[in-house]
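Ticket #4471: complex job returned nothing on first submit. Input attached below:
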Amino acid sequence: MSEELFRMEGISKSFPGVKALDKVNLMVNKGEVLGLVGENGAGKSTLMKILSGVYRADEGEIFIEGQKVEIDSVAKAHELGISIIMQELNMCGHLSVADNIFIGRAPKKGLFIDGKKMHEEAQKVLKDLGIQLSTYTQVSDLSVAQQQMVEIAKAISFNSRILVLDEPTATLTEREIDQLFEIIQRLKDKGVGMVYISHRMAELNLICERVTVIRDGQYIGTRNLSEITMDELVNMIVGRSLEDKYPKHKRTIGEVVLEGRNIHRGSKVNFDYFNVRKGEILGISGLVGAGRTELMRCVFGADRPDSMELTMEGKPIKVNSVIQAISHGIGYATEDRKRDGLALGLDIKYNTNMAHLQQLSHFGFIDDNAGAENAQKYVDLLRTKTPSIHQLCGNLSGGNQQKVVLAKWLCNDVKVLIVDEPTRGIDVGAKYEVYELFNKLSDQGVAIIMISSELPEILGMSDRILVVNQGEFNGELDAKTATQEQILYLAAGYNKLEGKPAPSLTVTA
Amino acid sequence: MATTQLESTAKKANSFNKLNAATRRAIYSMGILIALFVLFSAISADKFLAAANLQNLLQQIVTYTIIGCGLTFCLVCGGNDLSAGASMALSGIIMVSLLMKGLPLWVCVILCLCMGILTGIMNGFFIEILGVVPFVATLATQWVYRGMANVLVNGAPLYTTNIPSEEVQAQFYILGGGRIGGSGLPYSVIITAVYAIFLGIVLAKTRTGRQIYACGSNLEAAKLSGINAVRTRMFAYCVSGLSAAICGILVASRLSSAQPTAGNGYEMEAIAASVLGGISILGGEGTILNTVIGALMMGVIRNGLNLNGVNSFWQQVIVGLILLIAVASQTASKGGNLDSITRFLGIKKK
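Support reply: We reran it on our side without changes. The output follows.
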């Protein structure tokens, strides 16, 4: 039944100073989803860029249906039916869904675009994939998940036989992921071969039969998922065995540090009460868009709430701006490193000291040596992998970028550190290091508020979990006894439908 | 032996690549500058290398060096200032009309500089508080300032001969027109150099300078790091306004008159100088040194062409082309555009 669709053999690629890929093999059958896993920087993206014609391999051959092909440009890759759905979507936000699907090759009537035909055909493509969308909708009005579906539809309309999905679920909610998987199933039935890059093991188990592992540009192997345990797979990926994905740690939890009351902002943020204690990790769970980030942006002074009362160590504080929040010892590592966490065009030194300039300056002048020392100290402390502190942050891998973001706040001696999706898009090894760092911080008495969409992470790392549903807290759970099902139940607000009260641990004052 | 040599060149190339993009472009532009200098020296050594000519060359670039240094602040923080030329004319008019009222020179200079900063505050107000895009806001204020300059003098130039005290007339002329020992290096060149060094230090070494880079590189991240972005960017526009005012004073002084039409298009020359020197128009990178090198390049090109009798219309064409080529080759060093050329021509690689 399984008939080979394409095969990459002995692919090598060097960049100045680095061997990015060394004799890597990969094979995909018709109608198969192959998982491609490896740490960040292992070479997954480079390999896929070679397949899609962005880069040319130094060595190695690519066969499609047994025939050797030369892929020397993106156009050639399209011709051969290869499409790639990047992590960052490339869409023209001002144009309609149909315009985007047929961009650059719209059907014409004489000199003009045949709008009616274009929309009909776009509708046909969408319907084929079971996507319910109006082809007239402007793309910028769509959710990320919907945009991704349009992108897949676009690829399919090219008659793609080979589809690469690069971490497609990183920004999706559970329900959206289900929808995506339905589409993937339809594509499988059509005989499309897919390469699925993801850090989420649970997803691979759901949709892939085989996974190919690469590490540091080396081909490690291809395994049937049914014949291998998770631990063995993780072992292949990181090259060392992780006793546990979440370092076990005994925390000493102290007095309440930060308390928030009556935090309201429009309809999205309506929170009555929360607190976090010294040395505690408070997990904030909920569906994407439930108002978790919005709440924390208010607490951090980035957005102005309609009402908010905060107390820090028992004393009421005013936070009307980020500057005030920082001066009270609050730090906020944002959800999207590239958008609002780091200045990618500046170096590590710069970014590390970005929230720390006040302390580094005398009479308005910056003490460069002290800045360099500070940056170096945190590079060493967090084991950031970089040739020097003068490396541009844009050149670092996701995990190392995240370390720089954390360093930026750590050097300010924060009392409360808010981390928003701290391990999104970073690999297993780096995740573990970030978790260890959180444990170290909690030892030092820092209170950590962790927003996360990954349930195992929330359960594994937090002491207490607050679940958010539609802009309000819908229950508080003890992480030791809570289950994923419980969290999802509360996150989706089922208890409200059933008329049950939200569970609570703390006595609200 | 051969391999070690190869390794060391590779290492050198590598460390060059590691430099930040603006520094790389500064080195690159410096190379072109030296090449141009050598070229013109070879063609007409006696004329080009004459002390008087080199002094002239430096005096010619005073205007766009000063305005360019101010503009660098705006460009680095991710903005732009098209009003600099107009605000320069306005400053010149205000300077001379104040002098005509009989105020002491230093009072006039201070008032005039404050006026320049005020134009910056106005730009900053529209951009930062009202949220108008920098390009559009300063495009509009450009007409406002130019109009105000015209209104103040009803479109006619003001001559410094109308200043009541002849002593003040003479003092004022020295600022922009005077030379060391009567025929040496112009004072305006020294003022420019000192001012450029001062701004260079502000941008590279102070907290505000750091914050300007942060705002230009990633505004959201800067805000969330507790940087007061409004104040920081406002500061950049003020520096640009201040620079325009200084330039206005120097030009009025040298010409012994304030023209409401003065400085027309200077902001564009200044942007050109910055870009030529390797400042990114997208913000977040570049130093004052980039701009100064760029301004020197413009000066050397113009001066050299002049000496060789190229007429001024052709000079415009040549300067435009050099700007294009310089910027295109800067992107080429990133290894980009041969590919796009072949793609444009539809050539298939074998």
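Chain A has a mean pLDDT of 86. Closing as resolved unless it happens again.
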